[in-house]
Amino acid sequence: MSSSARRVAVLHLRTRRPSNVRYQHELDMLNAATVSTIESLGWRAQVVASAESSGIESLTAAREADVVVLMGGEDVDPRLYGDSAAYPGSGHHEPRADSTQIAVVLEAMQQGRPLLGICRGIQLINVALGGTLVQHLSNSAAHRGAPQSGNAFVTNLVAIEPVSDLDRDVDAADPVMCTHHQAVDVLGNGLMVAARAADGVIEAVVHESAPITGVQWHPEHPESAARQLRALLLRLERQLTASRV
Asked: What is the pLDDT of residues 210-230, one digit of tens each?
C-alpha cells in the first residue's frame, strides 16, 4: 500500500457533552485539526466515538487501519489502576470505552500496529500496560490554562530524554500546548520516559519494542498541528514501514 493511502483510526470518546459544551467545543477543535492534518498527508481518517458506539466498532476500525491515534477526553476510570474514585478534579468516567480502548492498545502492541496516544491517550496506554497515574498534579496550574478565561491551554516546554529517537520528531525548542491535571506515574510494562516537563512531569513515553508513542501535550492543537502532529504521524509511518520490511 502506498503512503498516500494510509488509513488512520482516530478514536475519541464523544460527539456530544450537553453538560459541558465548552469542553466539547475544545475537543471538537482538536479532533478537526487532527483529521485535517491526516488529510494533508493524503491519508484517510476514520473517526470513531468509542463511548457512543459498540466496542467492536472501535476494535474493527483499529484492525483495519495502518495506524491508530487515541485522543484526549475524560480521566481514565481509576478502578482500572487500583485507585480511588474520589480525588481532586474527579468527574465523569467512561469505563466501557476505557476497556475497549485498552483492548485496542494491547492488540496494537501484539500485532505491531503503530499507535499514538495524546493526553488521555498516553494515560490510557500506561494503564493498559499495568501502570498508574498521578490523579491530580500538585502544580496542575502549570499544566493547564484557565477555562473561565476562554483559554484552557498553557504553553509548556519539554526536555527530550535520550532513551528514544523522539528528538527526531519533536523539537524541544518548540513550545507545546498542554492542558491536563493528571499524568503518568508508575510506568507500564515496557514503557520508557521519552520527555519531561521542566518540573519533572512525564510528558512523553515510548515502548521499548512495540511501535507505541504517547504524548501528554496536544500536538494536534491548531497552532502546532502542522509541525508537531504531522511529525508524529510521519513517525508512525516510519514505524509501519519498518515493521513490514
From this structure: 999 999 999 999 999 999 999
Give CA separation, 200 vs 94, 137, 193, in Å. Answer: 28, 11, 11
Say which amino acid occupies 26: E
**What are the residue numbers of the active site?**
119, 218, 220
Sign, CA dihedral 227-215-75-183, equals: negative
Note the pTM of the prediction, 2 decimals.
Answer: 0.95
Express each pLDDT in 22-53 by its tens digit.
999 999 999 999 999 999 999 999 999 999 99
Contact between residue 85 and residue 216 where contact means Cβ atoms under 8 Å apart: no
Task: Give the Cα separation of 90 and 93 in Å (integer).
Answer: 9
E strands, the chain, where?
7-12, 44-49, 67-70, 115-118, 133-134, 154-156, 158-160, 176-178, 183-184, 191-197, 202-207, 212-215
